[in-house]
Amino acid sequence: MSDDQPNTNPPLSSHEPEKTQDDKNVYIEFVKTKYATIKVAVAPLMILFLLGGIGVSLYQLQRQQDVRQRAAAGDVELRLEANKTYLQVGEEATVTVQMNTFAYEVTVADINLSFPPSLQVGSLTRSTFLSVPLGDPIITATTARIEVGATPRNPKKGQGPVAVFKVKALAPTDLAKVSFDTTLTGVRSVGLGTRNVGGTYYNLPIQVADSTAPPTGTASLKIISPSGSALVRGQTYDFPIQLTTNNVQSTGAEAAVVYSTEYFEYVSFTSGPFSDFPIREVRRNPITYIPNHEVAILELGNNPTEPRTGTGVIANLRLRVKSTVPSSTTLIQFDQTAKISALGQVATNVLSRREPLLVTFESVAPIPTATPTLYPSPTRLPNSVSLGILSNKTSALPGEDVQFSIEADAGTIQMTGAELHITYSSTLFSYVSFAPGPLLPSLVRAPSTESTGAQISVGSSPAVPATGRGIIGILTLRVRSGIAATTTPIGFTTNNLVSALGQLGNNVLGNVTPITFSIAGTAPTATPSPTSAVPTPTNTPIPTPTRAPTNTPIPTPTINPSNTRLGISVKLEGIGAEEQTSNKVPQNPSRSSVVEVINTVNVVVRSVTTLLTYDLAGYFSADVDLGTSIPSGQYLVKVKMDNSLRKLNKDLVTLAPSTKTTILPFWVVTGDIDQNNKLELDDYNLFRSCLDRLPICTSIIFKRTDLNDNGIIAASDPIDYNLLLRSFDYREGD
Q1: 3-57, pLDDT tens digit by residue?
Q2: How far is residue 38's CA from residue 50's CA, in Å, rounded to a whole number?
Q3: What is the pTM of this model?
Q4: All domains of the chain, ordered by start, with CATH?
Q5: Residue 37 carries which DSSP code?
């Protein structure tokens, strides 16, 4: 079993008949009679054959143990899934990184991949399951990395895609892999701090077509096409599996064939004339790397005294074409677990070529499919347009914004415009904005708010009318502060209008469907309790946390005028006067910082812990006493604050005794919450823990996480979150 397939063996297919006990007894007697006269000659070769089988079994056992060991590290599953895995040189496949969190609520993931030089990875982007980018993806000749996170109020639980990339074939190869680097890949979950909850990793095998002759001493497998140029729906076909030994002496094979379960139904998998007997029953498993595919595995053996050489059919796979197959093509191919054993090559897979089969199906008229009904859209009345409302979340807290999408289902009606009168409670919501949707992208009349809702008109050019189902507008509302928990309808008045091409003066609107939305309400202030329950997050500003003893301010020393002195000023994004949203009154105006002085051969000659104090210009500044031990000369200066990356001032500074040298102000990057001079998964997860008021967010962690230093970390105050995302553009300090 490959580490790229689930470690399970489903029950035998109902299509595969079981042997009766009488059948088995007859088969045993046949074998006894056939080989009774060659027992003595066979014994040494049989021992060799068994040793080879034992070697293969140990190899398989080790691979299964590897999977179990990785699974023991955590429960989150990551797998690579491609639209195809057999490529021509220069051809590309689209690969999706899929995640299954099982019981965990995932906040962030660091995906690290490796691949051989015969492949090239490009266009690495985040996907929908973890949609927040944490810095730019990094791609080299043999590695790729992307870090993604969940939005602060929405940790992810369940299954979904976290990243998408392209893989391109550069050179022929029988089998190459895009693999997770399990030593670098990490996943973090709510409440578990720095623990890596990544568990099982499923890699992606890629085969690149090779027209050259197989290497000497290796074998090849090929899937033979059944007679006829195109397959007929509902018919059953045999697909022979052909072995070419290329001068090796084959003693057995594992025929592992992958096919689409959307196109085929399994019937049987039996041995062919070029092999003597099946070693075990057929196994069928779903595979992880191509959606809607499974692998059928048949292990075959030969009489040890008669190893096979030459070309012949070792197995026959029988499949039935499903009646719902569209007019297209599909590939039947070999899985990476396919192998050929050879005489004298214990535990060695001599297979070097796996030739797939591209099959086509007879052309038929397209099978009509019904348009799926998307909740909460109503059933559309004939010759009319229906309207419904969708929301981007199921509930919201006071102060949070909610997007309500207006969905239209026009069928074949050619819509040209819509006048929308949307109702909501103005005591619960305040209007934020309205934007036209892709189905009717033009704003005909600017939105106006009414006592019971909002009125908006949207349209499409008559030359390009809109048909089908889609979003015609997005209304954003904000839950007012101080609201208690409740439910409220969002709907339509009776005077909504929809116009259509050829329907001058007629309102083609039919059904409308409102929704009921839940407001979570303002949570009460948490009362200290001996229980371990986590209080519900609130939007009430949090008092400045009590400083731990380790954060006691460092007394400012009296500077001796005869000492070497350094005047420094640093700027923190989000604090100061440079932006309207910046906090100009930080809760902690004095910050403990480490200043390093480095000579021209990169040796730290002085390291001083000092206080940087906020000044009227919006900088954190200090006169640093460097003592008397630094010789006159030119130096570099590095500064690290309690939640920042270490920053090198790249200009050389001239220092001398009894002299104060002032350097130009410079910026430092904040967000290093765990103080390891890197921005990575743990910093993002600590931020998320403080947002939820989890116990791991101590007063010290809270202070480092509050990047704009206003005493608040809440969903209603997104500045800290935005500052952290900006900081992730800088991954490591100087």
Answers
A1: 444 433 333 233 333 333 443 333 333 333 333 333 334 344 343 443 344 343 4
A2: 17
A3: 0.56
A4: 21-59+212-360 (2.60.40.680), 75-196 (2.60.40.680), 385-519 (2.60.40.680), 552-734 (2.60.40.4130)
A5: G
